[in-house]
Please model this.
Amino acid sequence: MRYFSGSKTPDDDALLVGLSDDRAAATLSTLPYFDYLNRLAALEQVLRSNGQWFHPHPWLMTFVGDSNIEAVVSGELDRLTPADLGTYGQVTLSVFRRTAATSPLLHLPADNLFYAFNLVRIPTTNATAEADRLIKANRAIYERVRAAGGTLYPVSAFPMSRDDWRRHFGSTWARLRDAKQNFDPAHVFAPGYEVF
Model:
């Protein structure tokens, strides 16, 4: 993926020098940046039209540091089966500079470059057993990501205990707890997470 402005597109061949892939099998597309950012809206429309949007969404969103991304992603891709993602499921990988992440309590890997590594699972069934299987798999993947210095984006589908949350937030835990007590003493906001 590359970003550009104006009508002159960058030279793909120059950008891809030294990389190995199957150019003949590649599907290339160009779209405006807003459309790229809003690409999941089209997926949502398809899923609503065929009824799958109303099935469980056992997505997993993580951050992995640059120093471990290849090992983590290749290991997880080796474990994935088509049923783990579903017909419309996606594996997304996006790179970020640490200096661009300014949210004060977003827990990130220590590397200056890190990746959002996400499994957008779209089950073809609403069976409880299948959702439970994927939620259990999410927990196992998260443990491997965490062991590699990665972190969780806290909207992922698997249960976290209070101790898990305390470990997740680490040194910012006390600051978060104090803010919660100060600004939300009745625990009205985000009650389902059971962070405290």
About this structure: The mean pLDDT is 88. The chain has two domains: 55-158, 160-196. Strands lie at 60-65, 90-97, 113-120, 151-152.
